[in-house]
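Incident review: delayed structure delivery

Summary: a single-chain prediction request sat in the queue longer than the usual turnaround. Root cause was a stuck worker, restarted by the on-call engineer. No data loss occurred. The affected request and its eventual output are reproduced below so the record is complete for anyone auditing the incident later.

Affected input:
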Amino acid sequence: MIYIVDIDNTICESINSDYPNSIPYTDRIQKINELYDNGHTIIYWTARGGNSGIDWTELTTQQLQDWKCKHHELRMRKPSYDVWIDDKANWIFD
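Output delivered after worker restart:
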């Protein structure tokens, strides 16, 4: 399976877009790493920079490394939205 995973407030706490001071949720990262270890494709896709135009790629890449997030790909600037409605939506942290 292919998993698209948001970053801010999904695998870390990010208050007011203060990305340099985001705090990782290690339990959630562990669950996603288990999916990776079980052969699933993990793609982190973040909206960082989507509205501001700031390129957060370098910081985000370093954070994923520092937090030991296993993944296949990082995608930046996903669409900004309030609700994403999709027939495949599922929450793995329940």
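Verification: The CA atoms of residues 36 and 55 lie 27 Å apart.
Action items: add queue-age alerting; document worker restart procedure.
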